[in-house]
Specification:
Layout: H1 5-9, E1 14-20, E2 26-32, E3 35-41, E4 54-58, E5 64-68
Antiparallel strand pairs: 1-2, 2-3, 4-5
């Protein structure tokens, strides 16, 4: 997959990337304006109240696709 590198450099853009590391862990990289956050996905179960934001699908080749609502 190719990313538009200009979006990553634009200080006003918002970009979300999901990646799987070499050891099989999943990371979600979010860029909003000049702020970049990296979150690691764990297999721990959590509970609480919240709002559904979208759905993630893992493809046969191991890629994870996030589809916003």
């Amino acid at each position: 997959m190719a990313y538009n590198m200009l979006d990553l450099m634009d200080p006003n853009s918002e970009v979300t990337i999901t990646k799987k590391t070499a050891d099989g862990k999943i990371e979600v990289i979010t860029k909003k304006g000049k702020e970049i956050k990296v979150r690691k996905v764990t297999d721990k179960r959590l509970s609480g109240e919240g709002e559904r934001l979208g759905t993630a699908y893992q493809l046969k080749d191991g890629k994870v696709i996030y589809v916003p609502e």
